[in-house]
Amino acid sequence: MRTNCPICAKHQNPENSPLLQGEFWRVESGNIEASVKGYVYLEPIRHVEHWSEFSQEELIEMSELVPKIERAVGRIMPVDRLYIVVISEAVRHLHLHLIPRQQDDQEKGLTLIARATQHRSEIDSHVRREYIEFYDTLRKLLKSEN
Ligand SMILES: [Zn+2]
Q1: Any idea what the CATH number is for the domain that residue 121 is in?
Q2: How many A from CA of 141 to the centre of ligand 1?
Q3: Residue 13 lies in a domain
Q4: Ligand 1 centroid to 55 CA: how many Å?
Q5: Domains held by the chain: number
Q6: Is residue 34 in some structural domain?
Q7: What distance in angstroms lies between residue 44's CA and the mean position of ligand 1's atoms?
Q8: For a designed S-S bond to 111, which of 42, 107, 129, 132 qualifies (C-beta 3.0 to 4.6 A apart)?
Q9: What percent of the chain shows pLDDT beyond 70?
Q10: CA of 121 to the centre of ligand 1 (A)
């Protein structure tokens, strides 16, 4: 826990519930304003700023969660590629952006990554509801099996 860290603060907030909580990591829904369906964050529970600070156990759990997320998202929508990006520039607490690209997505590569990570689009309430339902389904899938 680090003060002034938005990720630590989010983890402490009882109103925020992750899609999945592991021993060392949390899977959180990505920002809905990004309008990238299936976009999730993988965040270490511990405030870690450098890869070299991770324990072996933390890295093992991360490596298990990535394919688990890929499978679960893939059961809801056709994922062609799953991009993984770590920037952690403005927010130093390391976190992985998992950005699925669907078969028929027009945007690819850096364009899609930029849209996901900059999340500036405006979405209406109808779309917002659709995303909330999507993440509810994903939460159930992540908790059920894989
Ligand atoms: Zn933190």
Answers
A1: 3.30.428.10
A2: 27
A3: yes
A4: 16
A5: 1
A6: yes
A7: 9
A8: 107
A9: 99
A10: 26
Q: What's the CA-to-centroid distance between 84 and ligand 1, angstroms? A: 20
Q: Report CA(10)–ligand 1 centroid distance (Å).
A: 9
Q: What is the pLDDT of residues 67-125, one digit of tens each?
A: 999 999 999 999 999 999 999 999 999 999 999 999 888 899 999 999 899 877 788 89
CA of 74 to the centre of ligand 1 (A): 29
Q: Whole domain around residue 46: which residue ranges? A: 6-144
Task: Identify whether 67 is part of a domain.
Answer: yes
pLDDT at residue number 146: 54
Q: Average pLDDT of 3-28?
A: 95
Position 1 in a domain: no
Contacts 24+ apart (CB under 8 A), 95-98: 95/7, 95/41, 95/42, 95/43, 95/44, 96/41, 96/42, 96/43, 96/62, 96/66, 97/30, 97/39, 97/41, 98/30, 98/38, 98/39, 98/40, 98/41, 98/42, 98/66, 98/69, 98/70
* From 51-55, 80-84, 118-122, 135-139, the region with the lowest mean pLDDT: 118-122
Q: Structure pTM?
A: 0.93
pLDDT over 80 (residue 1): no
> Residues 66, 84: contact at Cβ < 8 Å?
yes
